[in-house]
Automatic annotation (TrEMBL):
SUPFAM superfamilies: P-loop containing nucleoside triphosphate hydrolases. This is Methylmalonyl Co-A mutase-associated GTPase MeaB. Belongs to the SIMIBI class G3E GTPase family. ArgK/MeaB subfamily. The gene is meaB. It holds the Pfam family MeaB. Residues 1-21 are annotated as: Disordered. Residues 87-238 form the AAA+ ATPase domain.
Amino acid sequence: MSNFNKQVGSLSEKPGISPPEITNISAINQIKTKRRQQPSSDELITGILDGNRTSLSRAITLIESTNSDHFQKADEVVQGCLSHANKSVRIGITGVPGVGKSTFIEAFGKHLTELGKKVAVLAVDPSSSLSNGSILGDKTRMEELVKDENAFIRPSASGETLGGVARKTRETIILCEAAGFDTIIIETVGVGQSETAVHSMVDFFLLLKISGAGDELQGIKRGIMEMADAIVINKADGDNIKKANQAKVEFNRALHLFPPKNTNWQPKVTTCSSITKEGISEIWSTVSDYFELTKETGFFQEKRNEQNHFWMMETINEQLKQNFYNQPEIISLLKENKKAVQNNEISPFAAAHDLLQLYFKKQ
Ligand SMILES: Nc1nc2c(ncn2[C@@H]2O[C@H](COP(=O)(O)OP(=O)(O)OP(=O)(O)O)[C@@H](O)[C@H]2O)c(=O)[nH]1
Ligand SMILES: [Mg+2]
């Protein structure tokens, strides 16, 4: 037999020598169980107050959870963070799809982190359950901001009603503030009711526009223009600069037709390019001027108080409605009465009265 055949493979063990104990199975198991264990609400609160992102993300996941076991814990965490919140400025950004909201937030957010600010970006987008979370796609448009250690980007809670998403976003704002983020940016797509919801949770509301062909004001909902504290005409670059400047003149003229706001603040119209960054720092100056003015007059706090009151009432209304519509007896009587109303057997008011009677009797 040749020597070759006697050779043993390098993986074979020689008798008497066992492989070193490089892994400690029980230690691994301990780590695994620890990971599986959910942190307690106190641990989450401590983590958030320390600025720990994992704790922040986990707590937001709890807030977003539809599992009723998580509700109480989420409430505890929010409650524990509340006294550490409120120390930020909250800015809402709206505009039709494609106007450049995400690209703008990337440029604006980077400008802010360069100024030493800590920026959290949230989104209110009730349609995202259909589109599978549009801000997820946004993350690729916020390439720089995603990598920035002074920025935190969180996709919108999905699969929910606008009321549900809004509540979760409000609570997420509290957690982000407690974690030390001093500038909260909330993106919302300019369709449906979501901008009204965002308007009622921010201090400053910015409407993003692009210059169109000719009639700039066409198709803008008057209500949105009235809500805006600033209108920014984006994509003012290349061949677009001239048109953007024309649009600025038109919007300025239109804004002066609105009755003055109760802030002494005259909404501003500016142009910018989120790609070349031209005009971005001026927008922050405008926003800062607004905060300075409204903090001085007390309007800043007054508006937050009003918003808190509004959300308390909204929550009550929403839960009452939910409770009503989830009662099995109501569900079946509603079905019956709906048919009866359709067949003209009962008036809509009598049908409603009938349902409410049943509900109140059960309470
Ligand atoms: N030239 C130019 N293009 C821009 C500018 N800002 C955004 N864009 C482009 O416009 C397109 C849409 O930008 P997004 O930032 O995704 O727009 P959005 O408003 O967030 O869109 P949705 O999330 O779909 O509502 C992208 O192709 C951007 O590169 C700008 O200032 N100048
Ligand atoms: Mg976007």
